[in-house]
Amino acid sequence: MSSKRFLITGATGATGGKTLELLLERGYQVRAFVHQRDEQSIQLEKRGVEVAVGDLLDFTTIRPALDDVSGAYFVYPIAPGLIEATTYFAQAAKEARVSAIVNMSQISARREAKSHAAFNHWVAERVFDWSGLAVTHLRPTFFAEWFLFAAQQIQVGLVQWPFEGKHAPIATEDQARLIASILEHPAEHAGQMYRLFGPTEYTYAEAFEKISQILGRQIVYEKISYEVYREQLLKIRSPFFAQHIVEVAKDHGHGIFSGTDDVIGKITGQPPMGLEVFIKKHQEVFQ
Predict the structure, then answer these.
(1) Residues 239-252: pLDDT tens digits?
(2) Alpha-carbon distance 79 to 244, whole Å?
(3) Among 34, 59, 116, 158, which residue has the fewest nearby CB atoms (within 10 Å)?
(4) Which run of H or of E encompasses 267?
(5) Where does the record place the NmrA-like domain (predicted)?
C-alpha cells in the first residue's frame, strides 16, 4: 500500500464516494470525513478506510482529520455555510501542511451570479486562492445524475422543468476519475480551474427524445415557468436550495452551462461517457 493518505469529504456522496473507491483500488490510504458513524461508515472501516467523524462547520473536527494527509477533496452541499466551511478547511490544511486540494465548485460560480450558492462558490474559490495552498478548482456543468433524480417523472412519461438552454451532461464517476488523478499527480494541476463537460450537448427536449429512443417509450419534456418550479421545489427542499436551482435554470437558458471539452479525457486517458451509455447503465431505475 502507498504511504500517501488522502482525505475525502462527502465520502458517502456521489463524487466523494466514487473518488474514495478509485483511490482504494489504486492502493492508497484513504480517510473518509463523515457526519456520523452509521452503517455506511462502518462498512468503509471494514474495507480499511479510516473514518473521521466531524462537521465542515466545526474547525475542531476538521483540523485533526487533515493530519498526515497528502491531499484532500473538498465538496460542500447546496446549503448555507460554504464560505465558513472553506475558510476553516483552508486554515486547517495550511496548519497540517496538506500538499494539494481539489475543490468542487460549479460552472455557474461567478461574481455576478444571482444564485446565492453559486456566488458563494465563487467567493470560496477566492478564499482557497488567497490561502496559498495548491488548489485545483472544478466547475462541472449539470451532472448526468439529474436524470436519476427525475426517474419517477420519466417512469410516468412527463418531465416538467424550466430549463431551455443546452449542456453536455457529465457523470459523477467520470468526475471522480479526474479527482483521483489530480490527487495522485497534483503538481501540474495546482492553481488550475477546469470546466467539466460530457461529450455531447443537448437541450432537455433533445435529451428526453434520446432517452425515449433508448427506453423504447415516449418521454415528453414540458417547459414550465420558473415560478411554478420554485413552488414545486419549496414543497420538498429548503428555500436556499430552491433559490439556487431556479437561478441556475435561468443561467442555463443564458448559455452558462453550455460547452464541451476534453479535459477529463486528456488528464485521465479515458473520455467521459455519453448520455446513451449513462442511461443504459442505469436503465433499471427508469422502468
Answers:
(1) 999 999 999 999 99
(2) 9
(3) 158
(4) helix 263-268
(5) 3-236
Q: Give CA angle at 262 (258, 263), nearest 5°.
A: 95
Helices and strands per DSSP (H, E), number in the chain? 13, 11
Query: Strand pairing partners for 193?
Result: 137
Q: Taking Cα atoms as reference points, which of 150, 139, 117, 286 lies closest to residue 229?
A: 150
Please report the pLDDT score of residue 215 as a whole number.
97
Burial class (CB in 10 A: 0-12, 13-18, 19+), 39: exposed
Distance, CA of 72 to CA of 131 (rounded, Å): 15
Name 41's Cβ contacts closer than 8 Å, sequence gap at least 6: 12, 32, 34, 51, 53
Task: Please state, in angstroms and rounded to a whole number, the distance separating the CA atoms of residues 109 and 44.
Answer: 32
* Cα 224-225-230 angle, rounded to 5 deg: 105
Report d(CA 236, CA 209) in Å as an integer: 27
DSSP 11-24: TTSHHHHHHHHHHH
Strand partners, 53: 34
Q: Which three cell numbers stand for residue 226?
A: 420558473
pTM score, two decimals?
Answer: 0.96
Strands (E), the chain: 5-9, 29-34, 50-53, 71-74, 100-104, 135-140, 158-161, 166-167, 193-196, 202-203, 220-223
- Read off the amino acid at residue 42: I
11: confidence class by pLDDT, cuts 50, 70, 90: very high
Residues above pLDDT 70, as percent of the chain: 100
Is the pLDDT assigned to residue 1 strictly greater than 70? no
pLDDT at 207 over 70: yes
Tell me 283's DSSP state: G
